[in-house]
Amino acid sequence: MKEFKHFINGEYVSSANGKTFENRCPVDGSLIGQVHEAGRDEVDAAVRAARAALKGPWGKLSQAQRIELLNKVADRINERFDEFLEAECRDTGKPYKIASHIDIPRGAANFKAFSETLANHPTEGFRLDTPDGKGALNVGHRTPKGVVAVISPWNLPLLLMTWKVGPALACGNTVVVKPSEETPATTTLLGEVMNECGVPAGVFNVVHGFGPDSAGEFLTSHPQVDAITFTGETRTGEAIMKAAAVGLRNISLECGGKNPGIVFADCDLEKAVEGTMRSAFVNCGQVCLGTERVYVERPIYEAFLARMKEEVAKLKLGRPEDAETSFGPLVSHEHRDKVLSYYRLAVKEGATVEIGGGVPDMGAALNDGAWVEPTIWTGLADDARVIREEIFGPCCHIRPFDSEDEVVELANDTDYGLAAAIWTENSARAVRVAEQMEAGIVWVNSWFLRDLRTAFGGAKQSGIGREGGVHGLEFYTELKNICIKL
Length: 486
Ligand code: NAD
Fold this sequence. Notes:
alpha/beta
């Protein structure tokens, strides 16, 4: 049985309060281990270690030296690929086939992509005329923000955590990470990698625990934290924003979504089915960018629905390590209760269950896991809660539409604004519709495809700020203007 300790100042430490909680595998409900729950003391120790490290050897490294270290971290994750893969899949239940292509490689790549952008980013400079004719130079100079708190979710634990830790460290900050209580394993393992690569003690710290009245709240309200970057639910983002208001700390919030997929009659049907299948069902539908509302132009509505049902029926539920498994369990029983409550609500709200809608019989060995059936509904009203609220499960609602104007309005009729996917072979229409989407990212004939140098973030209640590429610089650095009189 495993024990997940905090990682503070380069060492694994237990909670002084002796508090632990269970970490269970959602595949079969088995106990993975005990996780230490941080009290205020551990959080304080982690933040102090991070603050001290800013002034230690870390703070004296050149940008090139930091980047070299972070490249080592990326390489070391890849060298220990199988350990990260096993730990991630045990915590989440996701198929090896998916995690080995997405979670772990991207987890490593996040330490390289931002470093490269940073290394090539120019410094701003202006020459100012002055009355004496001699002028002045204004030069932009970036310094680290300081101690950055990273609060991460459970759906892509390593990927989404390193997506923030990579740029934070590349910019010279130090971090205290609070991974989700559901998925402590890979963040804990990363501590070993940091030590192996010679990242100075205190630069990367981890505290475990829950949100309110636990490690999450203690960390985000700690006065020595300079900035908070968060990925998770919109309601949690609101709580973090309140905590950050004290002391005017910077925030970056990547929150929930209720993303539309728009399928025009002039699409390549097979491409649209393949992409929509992935966007609704990969990772058991637990992807913030996933599609839960699908709008299909009426001439191809029946054909599209029939093809989707055929493909859902082919999803292979099973153990993560089995090569043919394409669909795992939800992350926990708690989350399954939430998803199943929406399955019941959909029926109450008048949906036709086209496929799925319940709990599969996985056999004696797996029936204690957090399994649900992949589900498609039709027939719901546009104001149904199932259409308006983020479910974060393997399910979508498919509805016909008749005109471009109508579908633009339907797609935007949501509190969220994270992503949209458009399927059409008419490029003028694709651009026209994409420009009208109220979302941080719009895919045309694709999904989950993004150059890491581009901006990422949400509109409306899907978040505040943009990270990725040079955009992350605005959050992870303080931009100073140095004015030199000539
Ligand atoms: P969550 O908000 O419940 O938890 C996220 C993290 O916040 C966890 O580590 C949790 O312990 C912590 N937390 C909870 N309450 C807190 C508080 N009061 N103070 C400080 N920390 C607190 O989210 P989740 O259930 O782990 O993840 C699923 C959600 O994340 C979905 O809404 C999904 O859309 C969203 N998400 C968004 C993105 C994005 O990039 N926009 C990416 C992935 C997931």
